[in-house]
Amino acid sequence: MTSQQRPLLIPSPRTPGQEELPYTPVPGDSLIPISSYPKPTSGMDSNSQIEINENSYQVPGFVRNSSSHRSISSIQSKTSSGHSVREVNLSEMSMRTVRYGSSGTDFGGVSTSYKEINDEDARLVYINDPGRTNEKFEFTGNSIRTSKYSVLTFLPRNLFEQFHRIAYIYFLVIAILNQLPQLAVFGREASILPLAFVLFVTAVKDAYEDYRRHRSDKIENNRLAWVLQDDKFQQKKWKNIRVGEIIKVYGNETLPCDMVLLSTSDTTGVAYVQTTNLDGESNLKTRYAKQETQTKNPEKERITGLIKCEKPNRNIYGFQANMDLDGKRISLGPSNVILRGCELKNTDWAIGVAVYAGRETKAMLNNSGAPSKRSRLESRMNREIIFLSIFLVTLCTIVCICHGVWLRRHKDELDLMQFYRKKDYSEPEVENYEYYGWGMEIFFVFLMSVIVFQVMIPISLYISMELVRVGQAYFMIRDDRMLDKSSNSRFQCRALNINEDLGQIKYVFSDKTGTLTENKMEFQCASIGGIDYSNGKDITDNGQADNLVQADGMVLRPKMKVKVDLELFNLSKRKHTDEGRHIHNFFVALAACNTIVPLTIDTSDPSVKLIEYQGESPDEQALVYAAAAYGFMLIERTSGHIVIEIQGERQRFNVLGLHEFDSDRKRMSVILGCPDKTVKVFVKGADTSMFSVIDKSSNANIVKATEAHLHSYSSKGLRTLVIGTRELSASEFEQWQSSYESASTALMGRAALLRKVANNVENHLNILGASGIEDKLQEGVPEAIESLRMAGIKVWVLTGDKQETAISIGYSSKLLTSRMTQIVINKNSKESCRKSLEDALLLCKKLTTVSHATHGGPTAEVSRLALIIDGTSLVYILDTELEEQLFELASKCAVVLCCRVAPLQKAGIVALIKNRTEDMTLAIGDGANDVSMIQKADVGIGISGQEGRQAVMASDFAMGQFRFLVPLLLVHGHWNYQRMSYMILYNFYRNAVLVLVLFWYVLFTSFTLTTAITDWSSVLYSVIYTSLPTIVVGILDKDLSRTTLLKYPQLYGAGQRQESYNSKLFWVTILDTLWQSIAAFFVPLLAYWESEVDGSSIGDLWTVAVVIMVNIHLAMDVFRWYWITHAAIWGSIIATFICVMIIDAIPVLPGYWAFFEIAGTKLFWVCLLSITVGALLPHFVVKVIVQYSSPSDLQIAREAEKFRSPRELRHTQIEMNPIFYDRRRT
């Protein structure tokens, strides 16, 4: 490429250094639960279809039966497409081909939590009767064990795991061969030492880690809990708790096992738990005891009954069971169970019966790390090791063939030849003396050659790589530029074996909500009755309304303030007008149609308390705070009613029923008994689901206006919800209640029947309006995306949001620009998708042709293409023949934005690229719906944000902000890749030099495999003489400063182009090694050719010369020196001299005092100097010529960094290589 064609490396912009979670259930006084549907994992945003589908809501609905006050229990199956990705889908994915084109969100199979219970799948738990419970099947005890080994199993199991590495088996075979008398080349002890050392170091590390696990297990198992024994609660160790026992837990205590709630200190049976230890979520979740058991006191009256529940499974958001008590069958759901590891909060005590204990608890079943991934660099390294193995076999073959020829030529001299001696004349009868015939001798020489040249395969490389990765991880974790100060969370390195992959990423697949955005929702505007309040404008602080509520002499104020529209605020006070009533119903829906729990917080003023709305959905919190700002303040929620302060008047609404979100309906509803004695159903949900159940005949104008407002909100990047209501007649309510009772007690098909009941009541709604909630971009996202793009990294956004919302976020994050040509594919059939893809490819071809004619290359136009495709289209494209066309189109686009995609479709998009190119992929997300994508990509990163820790637990790395991707990839990723690449090549060179010196020596000693270098020096060469400098340089060396790497993102392209490790470099290294071995061997040989020096003396010279040579070679390639680098390199040379002197000073070892004899001559030191200069001079000359005639980007940047002042460098544009290239998998 000419200098005119080479793009300029322009400084990057300054780069600063989800979906919602399960809802809390709300029961009623006399309780009839409403629904039990698969729970989605996202907020109720109509912008965000899949985000709604993916949220997990744990909301049982309950109906007050005013006439009979009967209570019928509920069954709730919490199906979370997102949350269950890991728990449900892993086994399914491993057993069968996964289809990514599914339009539904139940994509990987169905957890047992969501199936009807039959006798074969059921666990029978007899309440307060552990003996009978465990009589037929002995359930596991409550003792847990996270440790891997015991005293007896440690040695065999640890060795078994270590020998999964083929290289270790290779060295074991070599060590065994050396124990045979016919093949004993080295000392038997010395041959075992390298492998023993590596196994010992790894075993010590594993033993220490397991010791810590044992200690943690012991502390956990010996904690105390209150267990009902002899009709009173007594303390008992956790490890001794059995399934069926009744347990009492006090406030702020941790739950010892999975329990079904029987009663709580709250008269309505409510208990609050915090699941931080389970899923990382800090919000309180509400759980309920059934009214049938709430009134029972186990210490005063014996409770007996049978719980028939599902077998243990990993789904922490699902539970299905029936309880037979006093002749009644009561349904149990996820809101009635509390799990091990959770903490009881805001509740004095809770009593429950153990249903799962020990390793069968959901917490322990989920106690597994992310799937292991293998470094791409290590995979390529294995290819080079195969070449080295072939090279090793070639050397051994040459030696054994030459030895066979030599034996033929000297067969008549072998009888008495010194050092060989074929005949044994020590006895009267002459016999062959250790001679096995010509063929066997050749075979033995081949095996002996393998033993002598074994160092060619560098066993020390594996342990060196592990240590280097640990060191690199330490510096990544301690990097304050990747510290999220808002949450005080540091970068986490959860997978130590893929650090270097961070320097080769070509594609970044990102979630939107909670990853690019903060997932902290703020109410912005509303459309009510067809009128847009705020008209899409930002509301200024002048519109701030400070709502206060007087209660029991206290002033209550919402913790979060919301900007309000003054016109809407004033209209909301006009209760007697039609417009006022419409606004009244809208805000009542916002305040009531949720599962938010209001909590009071003390302030510095004793007379003022803050109300904090605790909920698992940021969307719901924003809506409730908005309602409070307009004078509709939710101040109390119990299991059967809510209290809302409306314009200074306190009103009580009875919660008669609640239908939760599910992936089919995409909406939730609450049935309220209002103060005016009417019964109303309030519904909110995504626009796609709500407009299908709204009565458009009587609301035509309002519906049309609302649709226009929704489009406007979405275009601004706001998350939207539609709210509707209708009044239920007495007959409708009774019909619904009867249908629900029948559905909730059905033994088969219960979930489908309950869903049908919900659909029947959610229809013919009057539209109230729509809300717009802003999910702000995280700090530094636009600059981060711009830097990644300049680095040649393609950023794809995969979101469940509406197309308009996603496009708006794309513009604000600089993912999309006004100069880009947008290709939109939003079709509903396979043929229309095919036509769109063909048209888009033709467009790309035309643009490329025009670009060729205008600019002489395709880069400019292709880089301005953006593909926008929705999940419906992907249903018809993924897993079909259209995939290839989609890949071809996507690879020509700079940006791909996928809207309304399901979790498994996200993984399918990653697979689309991963299976067709050699490019490295990275997926980043924060929610459970991102788990499949994170695990599918080469590198998975979890954002520790608002959505719990599901993504973090499945990831390879975790961090607090999206912008940290820039320093992670461009700085640490670049450093890690450069260091590890050099370290691997250097290890190959370092070991091959020694092997070739030994090989040359064999050629001059009749191919007898005698070695001049002592056994111990051969062993210590890779352990002491040369290992430490490699590790230190691999951890600390920096080819470029952080400032330069961030300022010029294009430098990252060196890793994408594999400039530091490729086949060409490998073979160049081998040629360099060949020359250096010749210089190291033949200089002393020629210098001492006719002298009387013995083999041990010249062997010591070769040992010291090779060590000096390889360490100075390393020193020539070091970019940045630290004191520890000096100490490691020069200290290793000094250590070599000391070790050689010690070995030669031991009388029982061969070569006694040899070093001291030869080192006392001037020729020894002249040889050392000559070897070093002669061996390394070509390396230095070639390096200078290449860097001068054809410098790489990195060399140019290093020169600029070294010879220009920082001020001058800041305003410099450096000419660089192009970053766009195509590397398809062949």
TrEMBL record:
Residues that hold Mg(2+) according to the record = D511, T513, D926, D930
Q: Which domain of life is it from?
A: Eukaryota
Specify where the region named Disordered lies, as residue ranges: 1-46
Catalytic reaction list: ATP + H2O + phospholipidSide 1 = ADP + phosphate + phospholipidSide 2
Segments passing through the bilayer: 166-184, 190-208, 385-407, 442-463, 988-1013, 1019-1036, 1065-1089, 1095-1114, 1121-1143, 1163-1186
Q: How does it sit in the membrane?
A: Multi-pass membrane protein
Q: What protein name applies here?
A: Phospholipid-transporting ATPase
Q: Which organism is it from?
A: Sesamum indicum
